[in-house]
Amino acid sequence: MPSKDGEIVLRGLPISKGIGIGLPVFFASLEDYVPEVAIPCQEVDLEIARYRRALEKSRQDVEMLQKVSLSEGPSEIASILGTHLEMMQDPLLTSVIEKRIRSHRRNTESIFQHLIEEYKARFKTIQDHYFGERVRDIVDVARRILGHLCPFERLKMAEVPHNSIILTQELVPTETVEANASLVSGFITAVGGITSHAAIIARAKGIPYVANVDIKGLKKVDLHSLIVDGSQGIVILNPTRATLKRYQEMQKSYQKSYKLLKSVAHLKGETIDGYEVRLFANLESPKEIDQLIKAGASGVGLFRSEYLFLSQQKFPTEEEQFCIYKKMVKALKGRPLVIRVFDLGGDKKIDLPLGHAHAKYFSDIGCEPNPALGCRAIRFLLRYPDLLEAQLRAIIRAAQFGDIHILVPMVSDIHEVRLVREKVETIQKELGKPKPLPLGCMIEVPSSAIMCDAISREVDFLSIGTNDLIQYVLAADRGNHHTADLYYSTHPSILRLIRMIVTSANAARKPVILCGELAADPIIIPLLIGLGVREFSVAARHIPIVKHTIRKWRILEACRLAEGALDYPSAKELCDYLMQETAK
Amino acid sequence: MKLVQKVKVKNALGLHTRPAAVIVKLLQPRKSSVLFNYKNETINARSIMSILMLAAQKNSMIEITVEGEDAELTMQHLLQAFEMEFGEK
After folding, report:
1. Three-class SS of residue A537?
2. pTM for the full model?
3. What ipTM score was computed for the predicted complex, to two decimals?
4. Do B14 and A131 touch (CB under 8 A)?
5. pLDDT tens column, A502-530
6. Pick the CATH number of B2-87 from 3.65.10.10, 3.30.1360.40, 3.30.930.10, 3.30.1340.10
7. Which of A402, A405, A518, B40 qualifies as a cystine partner to A329, CB 3.0-4.6 A?
8. What's A47's domain CATH number?
9. Which residues of B touch A123 (CB under 8 A)?
10. Which domain holds residue A226?
C-alpha cells in the first residue's frame, strides 16, 4: 500500500472498465448502518422504553402478517410467524437486551446488533445443518425490530448526489438497475464476481466497478475523494493533485475514443468483403430503447423481461406488460424485439417479505442447495403457468404493433418449448389474433446444445446464451472467484459447441443469434464470425466497438482464424493463439 | 423445592423449533425456574432461542433442573411433553 501525501492505492478485482472520480457514498445494509452512541444514565429508561415500543411494533407487524397468511397462504407460514412471535418474547431478546442497555449504557440499536451478531456466531458453530439454518429466523426477526428502531430511511440508489462512488459490502442486481449512470461514477464492493448479474449491469451502464476491496477498513479512513480504475482494478483514496490530473486526462481520452467509435454507428456492420453481420442490443430497462437506436442497433436481440419484476419487486400484470411491450415495439419502428420470458429463480431471486402477494412463488421453492441447477427460468414458469400465460398474452397482444419474437430461456429438453408453443397457440385462438409469432429456444444448457439439430427443426430461431452455457459446460460458477479462472469463455469445448449449433441451425435454415458478454470482446468477435455467427446481441454501449471490429476483418481470414483455433487442446494455448493472431 | 432429572429426546428432528415452542408455552403459566443442561451448557428453558442453540438431536440426554413452588407439577408436565414427543408422535 504505497503512500505519498496521504494517497493510498488499493488493488481489487477489475469488474467494469472505465474511470470514475468522485466522492465516497457508503451504501449500507440496515445491519451495518448502526451507529454506536453512549446514553446518559438518566436516559436509560427512555432507551428501554424505545426498545419496548420497537418490539411491540414488530409484534403487531407479525401478527398482522399471520392473520393474512392464515386466510391465504399455506399453514407453514403462519406457524413460522408464530415462532417469530415467540422469539420476540424470548428473554434473550427482551430481558437480556434491557439488562445490557442498563449496564453498557449504549443506544439500543448498537446493543441489539452486537447481541444478534453473538447469537449468529453461536448458531454458525452448530454442525447440524437443520439447527444451523434457524439462524435465518433470528436474522429475519432482528431485521424487523431494527427497522422499527432506526429512525432513518435507507438511502436509495437512485437518489445519490452527482459524482457518487458507491461503497458497499455487496451489490445486488436490483440496486444496480436503479443506479443512474449520470449520478453514480463508480462502484466498489467487498464481494463480487466478474460475471455476477450486478457486474453485467454495471458494465452495460458503463459504470466502473472494482470488487474485493476491504470496505469495512475504508470506513475508518478519512475519505475526501476517490478514483475507481475499473480497467486496472485499482482504487485510489484521497488522490494527490498530480494523480487526479493524470486520471482526468485518462478519463477524457476514454470518452473521446468512445465517441470516435460511436461515429461508426450509422455504418453497416459488415466485413471488408461485404458480409453483413447484424448487431442487436441486449436490454434490461425499456427506457433505454432510444440509446440502442442511437448506438446503431438493428433491434433488441434480448430483452431480459425479468427486470420488470426485479426492479418493481412484483410481477407486472398482463395489462402493465402489454403497455410496456407495445410501447417498446412502437419505439423500435419495425425493428425486431426479442422478449425472453421471465428468467427468474437461481441467482435471480428476491427474498420478498412474508405476506407479499408474490412471495409464494419463491418461498415455495425454498432454499435450493444448488440454485444454478434448480427451478429457474422456464422450469420456474412452467411451475407457475399463471405467470407464463399472463406474459404470453401480453406479448401476443403487443405483437399486433410490431415485430416481436418470444425466447424461451434455459431449455433442457424440447418438450419445454413445445409446452410454450401449445400455450401460445391456445392464447392466439382465444384472442383471435393468429399472426405468426416466431418462437426461439435459448441454447444455454449443454443438453440442448447437443440436441440442437433436433431443436432447430422445431423452433423458429436459436439464441446462444454464452454466459450460462460456459458455466454449465465447464462446471465453473461464474460468480465464484475461486472458480473464475476455470471460467474460460474461449475454452475449445465452447468453440466446438458454438460451431455445432451454428451448423445445425444453418442446416435447418433457422437464424441463430449469439447473446452474451463474449460477443463484446474484440479478440473473440472475429473468431465467432469465423465460426459462422452472423447475428450478435450485446449491451448497447458495446455495439460501436463490435461494429468497429467487424469492419476490420475479411470473412476468409476470420474462418481461417476459427479453424486454427479449433485445433488447440487447452484454453490457455487457444488464448495465446488468439492474442497473437488478432494483434496482427 | 428443587428437582433434577434426566430425560431423553425421542422425536425425530430433536429439539427443533416446534418442540422448543411447545416447551416455552408449557412453562408460561408455571412459576418455577427451569434450566436445561446439555453437553455442559446450561440454559433457561423459557427461551426458545436458547433451546435451539443447544442443537439437541434425537436420543440426546437433557438434564432438567426445576426449582420453585410448583416444581413437581412443572417437572411432570415437561417429562410428559418429552415422552409424547411434543405431539409429533
Report:
1. strand
2. 0.56
3. 0.85
4. yes
5. 999 999 999 999 998 888 888 899 999 99
6. 3.30.1340.10
7. A402
8. 1.10.274.10
9. 52-53
10. 3-27+155-244
